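Box S2. Input/output pair 1.
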Amino acid sequence: MARHRVLIAKDDHERARALASALAEAGCACEIVRTGAAAVAAVTRRACDVVITDVRFGSGSELDLLVRLHLLDKAVPVIILTARGSVDGAVTAIKHGAYQYLVEPCSADEIHRHVCAAGARSQPLLSSSAPLGQLVQSSASMKDLARSIALVARSSAPVLIVGESGTGKELVAHAIHERGPRAARPFLAINTTALPEHLLESELFGHVRGAYTGALHARAGLFAEADGGTLLLDEIGDMPRALQPKLLRVLQSGVLRPVGSDHERRVDVRIIAATHRDLARSVADSEFRADLLYRLNALILYVPPLRERPEDIASLAPQLLAAARARNPESPVRALADDVMLDLQGRGWPGNVRELQSAIERMVTFGMEEVVSMDQLVALAPATPSAVEAAWYQPDGSPATIRQMSERYVAWTLTQTRGDKARAAARLGIDISTLYRKQRGRPE
């Protein structure tokens, strides 16, 4: 059984000790902290797999710590364990990133079960045998990427990671940090689309008390907290243009000024930026500063989409399956049939690894047999929104006709059944002769 590292952040020290003792007996390694700052520090240095905390912890308002931890590292699940539970509170907590919301009294066995599921989710869903970070390196393109990461890690220059959503750009950033001389220092990450502009500025550069309405306490900001380490700016292409000059100044001079402050602070932070956008086009459209792009793109890494490296699926799928089973231990699903694996390797995966993970999650949740067969796979596969939406329009953007939409839906169904016309007709609720007519575009 995995020895999950659990961080317990609760004001009631006696209850925290009792919980730690119970989880330790179940095989967990527990650490207790009594302040929000200590919890943030533990997550920053990646000292835990799961966090257990209350709705209100320390001097902050409700869910302050949850929001802060979620911004720092979305991969670390946070379990809310509270005696002041409510339905509205649970909904709000989940919306703010909580993995689970538990109301005391709650048995140690139940808490341990949630910790195991959360801990399995937080583990990297990639090869444990990979020599560099946790990146699967079966394909030639990923082996090339691994070699580039090893070279880039030795530098302190900014890095720009480019790739489609769901390809694992944050894992690449982690690998760069862990292989470099800053590995013992903090690695922090923030999605620049996660906050409104004024809050994003404060989150990055800090603020003084009273800098704006609601700024009751001073904040150092992520640049200051990552001093000596690495800061990942995810989805940099969506960063508000008004903040780009301030980021550029920090990159050029290493000096920042917190919001509302008259004093500057020098920081030593390696910047890694990631984006799914074409930043050159964003520059041409005046959405992104050219000088900032030139500062960021001295070192560029491209993360290939999953469709360009189908051989990696043979390594990814079993690990994603194991992680999904850890979240749903009562599922009968144990493996994927060989033809299912071949089918997965032949798909386009526009959502990349994230979409593959969701597909396997459905198999484990709804599968009724130990080995997922092609029949089960077809029954569990939903129509992707992108494919359905594309069928509504013609190439020139005008609406498609009913006949065109019908023909496209038939074609899509045939791809889902791997050309099996009898099975496609059954799924469509028509006889096979009607299917042939629809393929040829003939009227009914």
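Box S3. Input/output pair 2.
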Amino acid sequence: SVGLCVKPKTKAKELLPWINQMDMILVMTVEPGFGGQSFMRDALPKIREIRDFINRNKLSTHVEVDGGIDSKTVVEAANAGANVMVAGTSVFRSPEGLEKAISKIRMTERI
């Protein structure tokens, strides 16, 4: 599989020429480097633009999101078009434990 990871400041238009060669695009919704950062909502239009391109071109590329994912932001990311989520801090630092934290994210309804 081939994937590409992009930082928050990378524009979607910079990826579009290569998306047809990718199995997955990972959109960082925090600045890489350390956990516990807040989800950057200004990444949502980029996720939407990437998903729209994938759909228009009938590609099977996954859109993954990493950074600030929890039971609330997972809905926003999914509604924007992400279909793979990475949750770190919200799971590993959950006072409810790993199983409950994962379950809350998985059971979150997409609007």
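Caption for Box S3: The two ends are 30 Å apart (CA to CA). The mean pLDDT is 91.
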